[in-house]
Amino acid sequence: MVKNNSIDIVVEDDNWAKILVVSEAQCASLLDLVCKYLTDNKIETRYDLVGLDKPVSAVLALSNADEIRKLNAEFRGKDQPTNVLSFANIDADDFEEIIENEETIALGDIVMAWEVLQAEAKEKNISIADHFWHLLVHGILHLLGFDHQNDEEAEIMEGIEIAVLEQLNIDNPYKE
């Protein structure tokens, strides 16, 4: 994966500044780290996005529980807030056209709710920052086509998350 991957941050709720400050450069570095891990370990992604010789980008919306509840209800049929949602831009119908015509491949959007992130971090007795980075890795993996709808998918996705977070000196978020 070439460099110049990027994550644009859109702050939808100013309360984020009270719990965590992150930069687009830090988030892009994490995207690079995820892509490098997948490439180095020859882990295939949807449509082989990581193997492309083009940079990838995403948008990270720092939102709140109200907004994420609305999105969760509309797109997943679950009328409750959640910690993170991912909305991929690419599907099989337009993949070839996008790859051919775009300089940078826009993976999609990741949305996080600060209240949920904060409450989960407190409940798990982990830092807000560590939980944020975990959820961002999780969201990036969803944009790249990973999922956890069954045990096999969950094991693969969680294994990648654990390995990437380990490189950031963040403990395994799935340990009991």
Please provide a brief summary of the model.
With about 180 residues, the protein is an alpha/beta fold. It has helices at about 15-20, 25-40, 65-75, 95-100, 115-125, 130-145, 150-165; strands at about 5-10, 55-65, 85-90, 105-115. A four-stranded mixed β-sheet has the order 1-2-4-3, with helices on both faces.
Secondary-structure map:
Blueprint: E1 6-11, H1 16-19, H2 24-40, E2 56-63, H3 65-76, E3 84-88, H4 95-101, E4 105-113, H5 114-124, H6 128-143, H7 151-167
Parallel strand pairs: 1-2, 2-4
Antiparallel strand pairs: 3-4
Helix pairs in contact: 2-6, 5-6, 6-7
Structure in words:
The protein is of the alpha/beta class and 176 residues long. The protein has a single domain (6-167), classed as Metalloproteases ("zincins"), catalytic domain (Collagenase (Catalytic Domain)), CATH 3.40.390.30. Helix content is 48%, strand content 16%. The protein contains 7 helices and 4 strands; from the N terminus they run βααβαβαβααα. The protein has a 4-stranded mixed sheet, sandwiched between helices. Helix 5 packs across helix 6 and helix 6 packs across helix 7. The radius of gyration is 16 Å and the shape is globular.
Largest sheet: 4 strands, mixed
Q: On the 0-100 scale, what is the average pLDDT? A: 91
Structural class: alpha/beta
Q: Could you give the count of β-strands?
A: 4
Tally the helices: what do you get? 7
Strand content: 15-25%
Using the CA coordinates, give the radius of gyration. 16 Å
Q: Which segments are poorly predicted (pLDDT under 50) over 5 or more consecutive residues?
A: none
The first-level CATH class is given as Alpha Beta
Distance between the amino and carboxyl termini: 34 Å
> What is the percent of helical residues?
40-55%
Q: What is the chain-wise order of helices and strands?
A: EHHEHEHEHHH
Give the tally of structural domains.
Answer: 1
CATH superfamily: Metalloproteases ("zincins"), catalytic domain
What would you call the shape?
globular
What CATH architecture do you see?
Answer: 3-Layer(aba) Sandwich
Strand order of the largest sheet: 1-2-4-3
CATH topology: Collagenase (Catalytic Domain)
